[in-house]
Known about the structure:
Helix 1 (13-26) runs parallel beside helix 2. 41% of the residues lie in helices and 5% in strands. The chain contains 3 helices and 2 strands. With 87 residues, the chain is mainly alpha-helical. It has one domain (2-83): P-loop containing nucleotide triphosphate hydrolases (Rossmann fold). The protein has a two-stranded parallel sheet. The protein is globular and about 40 Å long.
Amino acid sequence: LLLDDLGLESMSPMQATMLLEVMEDRYDKSSSILISQLPVKKWYGLVENPTTADALLDRLVHPSYRLELKGESLRKEQGVASTGKID
C-alpha cells in the first residue's frame, strides 16, 4: 500500500474509519508506505473522532520506520534547472 500526500485535507469520519480498517487488516502482515508533508505530530488533528485517531495512529506509527527529509523540494530545483525559473 502506498498512500501519498497524507494530510492535505482532514479526513471525514468515513474516510478515517475506512483507512483504519485497511491498516488493521495489514497490521503485522504487509508493508505500507505513507508520504506526507505534514509532520507526524499533526496527524492526530486530521481525524475528527479522538478514539478513531488513537486507533489509527497506533497502527500507523507504532510499528513504523520514519524518514524525515529536510531541505528544499526537488520539484522546485528541477523546475529551476529546466526553465531557469520556479514553476
